[in-house]
Amino acid sequence: MGEGGNTYWSKFVKDLSPYEPGEQPGDENVIKLNTNESPFGPSPAVLQAVKAELNDDIRLYPPSNGDPLKKEISEYYGLSEKQVFLGNGSDEVLAHAFNCFFRKKKPILFPEVTYSFYSVFCKLYGIKNQKISMSESLNINLEKYEVPNGGIIFPNPNAPTGTLLSLDNIRSLLKFNTESVVIIDEAYIDFGGESAIPLLQDYKNILITHTLSKSRALAGLRIGYALGSKDLIDGMYRVKNSFNSYPTSRLQIAAAIASFKDENYFQDSVKKIIKGRDDLTKGLHALGFYVIPSFGNFLLVTHSEHSAADIWRRLRQVGILVRHFDQSPISNYVRISVGCEIQNKVLLEALKKIFVTHLI
Question: Which H or E element spans position 227?
Answer without folding.
Answer: strand 224-228
